[in-house]
């Protein structure tokens, strides 16, 4: 995960957080590993980023939908809602505010 993204902003609210990140360039090894000559951010990495930032370990992915391709150098906003003590819902939007992914997990 080292140097895969840069945190631009992290806002904390009562039961939610908003994380804005900037992904690294296509030269990063994670982009090279997914599809040769078609660098995209793998779905599991979209989940791993939020877990890494929040320092959480996932027990179970309850639901995941990957709606649009995420490319190197994309700016993403993670909207993280804590449903209860162990359940979270995350919506990821791109710079244009279009939802690109959504997932729920349990810690």
CATH superfamily: Hotdog Thioesterase
Mean pLDDT: 94
Number of domains: 1
Structural class: alpha+beta
Task: State the total count of DSSP E strands.
Answer: 6
Detailed description of the structure:
A six-stranded antiparallel β-sheet has the order 1-2-4-5-6-3, with helices on one face. The model has no long low-confidence stretch (mean pLDDT 94). It has one domain (5-106): Hotdog Thioesterase (Thiol Ester Dehydrase, Chain A, Roll), CATH 3.10.129.10. It is globular. With 107 residues, it is of the alpha+beta class. The protein contains two helices and six strands. The two termini are 20 Å apart. InterPro entries: ApeI-like, HotDog_dom_sf. Residues 23-101 form the ApeI dehydratase-like domain. This is ApeI dehydratase-like domain-containing protein.
Short note summarizing the structure:
With 107 residues, the protein is of the alpha+beta class.
């Amino acid at each position: 995960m080292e140097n895969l993204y840069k945190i631009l902003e992290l806002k904390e609210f009562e039961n939610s957080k908003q994380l804005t990140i900037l992904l690294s360039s296509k030269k990063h090894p994670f982009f090279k590993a997914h599809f040769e000559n078609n660098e995209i951010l793998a779905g599991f990495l979209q989940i791993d980023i939020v877990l890494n930032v929040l320092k959480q370990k996932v027990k179970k992915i309850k639901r995941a939908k990957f709606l649009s391709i995420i490319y190197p150098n994309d700016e993403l906003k993670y909207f993280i809602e804590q449903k209860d003590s162990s359940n979270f819902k995350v919506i990821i939007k791109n710079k244009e505010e279009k939802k690109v992914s959504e997932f729920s997990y349990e810690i």
